[in-house]
Amino acid sequence: MGRMDRPTPPSTAYLDHLVAETAGRRAALAGAAVGGQATAAGPEHDDGAPADLVTAVEQAAESLEPELAEIVRRLHEDPEPAFEEHRSAATLVEVLARHGVEAELGAHGVPTAFRAEFGDPVGPTIAICAEYDALPGIGHACGHNVIAAAGVGAFLALHRVLGSADRHVPTGRVVLLGTPAEEGHSGKEVLARNGALEGIDAAIMVHPYGLDVADQVWLGRRLLTWTFTGRPAHASAQPYMGRNALDAATLAYQGIGLLRQQMPPVDRVHATVAEGGTRPSIITERAVVHLYARSKYPDTLRDLSRRLDDIARGAALMTGTEVEIVWDDGAHPSLPVRTNEALTRRWVAAQHRRGRDPLPAGVLSETLAASTDFGNVSFRIPGIHPLVQVSSPDVALHTAEFAAAAATPAAVSAAVDSAAGLAATALDYLSDAGLRAAVHEEFAAQGGPVDVVHYFD
Asked: Cys-Cys crosslink for 321: which of 17, 21, 44, 230, Cβ 3.0 to 4.6 Å?
């Protein structure tokens, strides 16, 4: 228990981020005012790949539309939840095999992960991530079937063009990572801890949504369980001999509500009481509360975690109960997504060629924010996680309506456009040394790699 003889000092992390972001916007506006092209990623010196190669990979992606439609349909009709995606992974490996690509199923110690690659590991290496897990009971209500099709399509388009012997192609390597268990289990963190990102310089993927968005806020997320233990007693005859665990859970739940008044606007806490006693006539001996904690920045998420620890301990102290605090049991924390602007510019250029116009950062309200385990990738290596439209803007992720949208012709079109966009972005990265320099200079300016494994220790 920490000291209680004086107020705890408020964290300045959120204000520090506001100051830094304001300075960045001021610098960008000043650069634009004098006719420059300066951004947070530095001057634009990323011309991308030769036009003939870009056209070739985009046409190759378009030619894969029947098979991408098959992936969208088959995965949608047979949804599998986290770490149970055996048939989904097998389907994707089967499609790769048709094109002469051998994939390792069960890669990096995860039975439903897979990995395929081609090219020269001596040059730069870029990874394309493909998700394919579904939500229990509601299926592909997050559209991971579309993500899978886009990732496989991008990889195969690059494999066809860069594997051709009759054209000059850039030196480098492309890796396709089949990443299971995004929903609630941080599968990418499991893979990363098992070495999946070793030797990889950058990573890209796309996610379906109700709008085309180049860069949107993705919050970091942690799971938390409070287990309060008291002493049972007869609630009428001897209530004074009990210590009520439900009282502790109730006080802690109210404490969350009061904390919200002082939380930064980028923080979120959601909770449910999973166990709250068995009979009204018995003072509750055990109560369990499950929580999600989310925030826009790693350090503000860390501060929120500490505040929630204090709430639980305070509720236990007030009620004379014991509390067990368990963070991220059976899962790993997800950090926010750190978007790389230099790579994002290439994605946007590719999507413009597809007739799409992705919204830039800051247009869509950051209150419309969820979480993804790709954040953990983006704090290790540069990455992007843009959004592609498959539904009308009023349809939310994780709903039956979005699940239906993920099986429509619009979903197939999104998969094809995304495959072309990811392939072109990867090709630009491999081909353009100036772009690669901008990508990695920006990543270094953002703080470089973070020790994700021990960040919350």
From this structure: 230
pTM of the model: 0.89
Tokens of 145: 């079937």
Task: Say which residue the tokens 């592609």 belong to.
Answer: 388
pLDDT in tens, the chain (457 residues): 556 677 888 888 888 887 777 777 767 666 555 444 433 333 444 578 899 999 999 999 999 999 999 999 999 999 999 999 999 999 999 999 999 999 999 999 999 999 999 999 889 999 999 999 999 999 999 999 999 999 999 999 999 999 875 667 888 999 999 999 999 889 999 999 999 999 999 999 999 999 999 999 999 999 999 999 999 999 999 999 999 999 999 999 999 999 999 999 999 999 999 999 999 999 999 999 999 999 999 999 999 999 999 999 999 999 999 999 999 988 899 999 999 999 999 999 999 999 999 999 888 888 888 999 999 999 999 999 999 999 999 999 999 999 999 999 999 999 999 999 999 999 999 999 999 999 999 999 999 999 999 999 8
Give exposure, 384-403, as e/b (b: 16+ Cβ within 10 Å).
Answer: bbbbbbbbeeebebeeeebb
- 283 CB-near residues (< 8 Å, 6+ apart): 230, 231, 232, 233, 234, 235, 239, 242, 243, 244
The tokens describing 333, both together, are 């924390």
Give the residue among 211, 221, 223 at the shortest CA–CA distance from 331. Answer: 223
Distance CA(46)–CA(33), nearest Å, equals 21
Amino acid at 357: D
